[in-house]
Every structure is written in structure tokens, then in C-alpha cells.
Amino acid sequence: MERNISLVSLLCFIIFNGCLVLEADAVKSQRSEKLKLIHRHSPELGHNPETTLGPPKNSEERLKQLVQSDKARLHAIKRRLGVVGKANDRVEFPFRSAADLGFGQYFVSLRMGTPAHTFTLLVDTGSCLTWLKCKYTCIDCSAAWYGRRFFSANESSSFKSIPCSSQECKTMDKASTLPTCPHPNAPCYYDYSYLDGLNVAGSYFNETVKFRFSNGRKKGLEMTMGCTDGLNNLKRFQEVDGILALGLDPLSFAVKAAHEFGGKFSFCLENHWIIKSESSYLVFGKEDQVPNMQFTDLLNEESKMTSLYPIKVTGISINGTMLDIPSYVWDMTDKGAGGMIVDSGTTVTHLVEQAFDKVIAAFEPSLSMYNKTKGNLDYCFNAPPAEIFDESIIPRVAIHFEGGAKLEPAVDGYIFDDSKGVKCLGFVRVAWPEMNIMGNLLMQNHLWEFDLANKKVGFAPSKCMLD
After folding, report:
1. Secondary structure of the chain in the HEC alphabet?
2. According to its UniProt record, which residues of this chain constitute the active site (predicted)?
3. Among residues 70, 173, 343, 451, which one is catalytic?
């Protein structure tokens, strides 16, 4: 989810900087946190006819939702960069999905408070503040406003409000933290605006989150969160209680959990087109040994994109032949042009025109037997039903990274059913100067590890099965 830039709010994206210090303690390095992931179109979430939640009716509607979501997310990233308008001891949380809300891809069930209660939070790799619908300082705390579930701050003995006069408040995101401080013990307030029109307001607090290790042991960690008592789009949050932020800012859930559990986190995204309920997961800490893991460096400190996950691409090959794409396409500039980011919140892979045109040209000879047609993506064609469609004619794509790592996605990571008799290539053409974005469909069926301590990103083929 991306947050708009205003006088009182600024999107706090994923960042990594020198302020993050990770302990090399041998015990901590063996701990990890595992969270079950389910795709947002999974029927497991259920469907409320009074809300926008629920799976799409058909493949055309489904792909249309994904493309619309990606457009909003790409615009948000550009706004933030100023391009527009200027182990065996892992802790496990179950994940589940919802219909596409334009915020992100996956949802997690989190237990917090004393006594502990379970909340469903949207996982957002593009923000730094975890927040929940919450009763604390609100005047009208009606059940109609909150929906079926909310966090009742005054009923938790471990809830700690953060005073507006405190040093902790002063270190929060200055653009979104309000200067309001009527008296020293008043809460530290925030106001966030998202590009899709969502606005959330409330106060910061510290609360205990319950972690359950895979060996049965439990542990509580104090996390900084937001108690949201102002939300302008309740319809989208009838089934969701808030947002779990996986940004790399010291405030974020990801950084604090990774600090405790070995300096890294990882996730494995199930096949988008085969909906299951138990195969995707998110892990904080050390993963089991994975064969064929390849690594490339995170480049946060070398570009303006310090809030994202930029990695250095050296090229794209089709059927083993490297395409003649200008090298500057993969170089990041201080104005947010070029380079590639890994973004699990974007569905379809975005390529700048210099790269997109070369990829399409390499595909066209193999697809010449099919007529081009209109669809939800930039290159679509008429094709026979899946049971007789010859997938072997589809060229194999590989993304090459600095250091020799190479991602070879499955065909269903870049060939999608758009509607009956229509398929599309899973790439979106964006104008230069913009950035390239690797979407989660290209990442599916791979384990992705974000080693924050060593500033590396790793990946390996995986069936994404929980232990």
C-alpha cells in the first residue's frame, strides 16, 4: 500500500539504513518466524455481499482487478520518488487472503494484547507502520464504525500509549506525525493518506505481540503500532482489521522481528492460478537449508530508492539468448529512473519501454500463429483452451542479476488467461524514465529471502509447502 504525500502525511516505504543494528547472537540467529500465506483470491477468506471482498467471477474480472491494483501501486511508487508531479525454532502465524483491495497481496492472523486476541492484518511491504482499527481516544466508538472486530486498547493490560511529549514521538515519521500536543501526556497522533483515497488517523502505541515458535515455545515482543480510530473507507476494512507493515524502517514490524530472529525474513508465494489454503508462508528468522539458493545484493544505499527493494539486473534472456537492452535501463538514478525493484505487492511485472519492446519482439515469432487482440494487458492474443494450448511453444524467460544469479520463472508466471479464448503476456510497458518492477507472479513458486543484516536478496525454486 502506498501513502500520499501531503502536509501531514508521507508514505513511509521500506528502507534500510545504517540505523539498523542486528545482533549476531548465535541463539537469536537460529530463531525464526513463519507465517502462512494464502492468495487474496482464495475462497478461504469468504465473501461478504455488502463489501467489495470476495473472489472475482471469472478470469477476465480477476486479471482486470490485478492490473488496476498494479496501476495504483505503480503510481504510488512514482509519487513517493517525486517522479510524478514532481529454522526448527521458527515462530509461526497463519496467513489468509481476501479479494483485491488495491493495498497488497496477503493477510496474516496476528495475536496481540493481554489477554491476547487475534486480528487479521493486510501484509504491506510498502509501509512502515502497523495499525489496527482501535478503540482508545475516539468519541463515537460505535460497532457500526468498526465492523465486526477491533482492538480495545483499554482492555489490554500491556497497552502503552506513546505521549506526544516523549522522545519516542519525536522520532516517528515527521511528515505523518501531527504536531498536536495539547498536554504532555496526550497521545502522539498520526494522519496517513493513501493514494487510493484511504485515510487513517489515530495515535501511536506499544503493545505485546504473541509469537509462537514451531517447537511450541511462546514469546511476547513489544511492537510499536498505530491505534486507528479514524478511517474514511470502512467498506474495504469490514473483513480486515488493519495493516501489518513489512517496511525496513526501524519502526516497522519486519525490522523489529528480524532484529529479534536472526536479521532476515523470507516468503514463498504459491502459484497464483492454483488457489490453495495452506501452501504460502512468511518466515522471520533463519529458514531451513534451501538447495540452489542464489543471492544478489540489495542496492538501497546506492540509489534514491532507499525505501524499496532495489536489485541490480544485468539483462533478460529469452530461450538462452540475451536481449539487446541498453544497460542504462538497469541503472538506478537519483531521480527514480531505471533499475528494478522486487515488490511482492505488485502483481504483473513492469518494464520500461526499452526492455518491454525487446521482450515482446522476442516472443512474437513463437506467437505468430495466434491473432493479437485487446485485453487487460499490453500484449494479448487469441488462444485455444488451456487443455489443448501447447505451452511448449512459449519462450522461456530468465532475469539475470549481478553476481550471476538467474531467475527462471515458470510459464504461468508470465502467460495469463485474460478471458475466454484470450491470453496475455504478463508484462506492462511503462514509459522512460521510470523504474522496472518485478511483480509477484514472476516471483511465485520461489522462496525469497531478504537478508537485512548482509543486505542481500536470495531466491530458490520451491513448492511453497508448510512443514
Report:
1. CCECCCCCCCCCCCCCCCCCCCCCCCCHHHEEEEEEECCCCCHHHCCCCCCCCCCCCCHHHHHHHHHHHHHHHHHHHHHHHCCCCCCCEEEEECEECCCCCCCCCEEEEEEECCCCEEEEEEEECCCCCEEEEEECCCCCCCHHHHCCCCEEHHHCCCCEECECCCHHHHCCCCCCECCCCCCCCCECEEEEEECCCCEEEEEEEEEEEEEEECCCCEEEEEEEEEEEEEECCHHHHCCCCEEEECCCCCCCHHHHHHHHCCCEEEEECCCCCCCCCCCEEEEEECCCCCCCCEEEEECHHHCCCCCCCEECEEEEEECCEECCCCHHHHCCCCCCCCCEEECCCCCCEEEEHHHHHHHHHHHHHHHCCCCEECCCCCCEEECCCCCCCCHHHCCCEEEEECCCCEECCCHHHCEEEEECCEEEECEEEECCCCCEEECHHHHCCEEEEEECCCCEEEEEECCCCCC
2. 124, 343
3. 343
Domain with 101, as residue range(s), is 28-285
- Do 277 and 300 have their domain in common? no
* pLDDT above 70 for 27: no
Residues 275 and 323 in one domain: no
Indicate if 302 and 413 belong to the same structural domain.
yes
**pTM (2 decimals)?**
0.76
The enclosing domain of 381 has a CATH number of 2.40.70.10
| Catalytic annotation present for 124 | yes
Domain boundary among 285, 320, 339: 285
Question: Tens of pLDDT along 158-193?
Answer: 999 999 999 999 998 877 899 999 999 999 999 977
Instruction: Mark whether 74 and 115 lie in a shared domain.
Output: yes
In a domain, 124, yes or no: yes
Query: Which of 263, 285, 307 lies at the terminal end of a domain, its last residue?
Result: 285
13 in a structural domain: no
* Number of domains within the chain: 2
pLDDT greater at residue 117 or residue 465: 117
Q: What's the pLDDT band for 86 if we cut at 50, 70, 90?
A: very low
Residue 79 lies inside a defined structural domain of this protein: yes
Closest CA to 282 of 259, 257, 265: 265
Strands 95-96 and 427-430: unpaired
pLDDT over 70, % of the chain? 68
Tell me the residue type at 357: D
Mean pLDDT confidence for 224-234: 83
- The stretch 327-331 carries a mean pLDDT of 94
Cis peptide before 179 (omega within 30 of 0): no
**343 is a catalytic site residue:** yes
Is 332 inside a domain boundary? Answer: yes
